[in-house]
XRE family transcriptional regulator (Chryseotalea sanaruensis), 72 residues
Amino acid sequence: MTKLGEYLDKKAVKKSQISRRTGLSKQRMSELTTNETSKLRADELYLIALAIEVDPCDLLQYVCSELKLPKA
């Protein structure tokens, strides 16, 4: 499961509901929440955040929490 999938599980949000509200296909939502190699685009993240009524910055921070700058 991806970080996005974990976030949606914690919020108890159905992927089908997000799909209807955002226009993203159910297949794409499934890919984004289960496939670790899938790439979440900024526009998709923004639409998902709007659909579940959370701050897009909060969702971005959660999804990208493992990213760190390399040590100089």
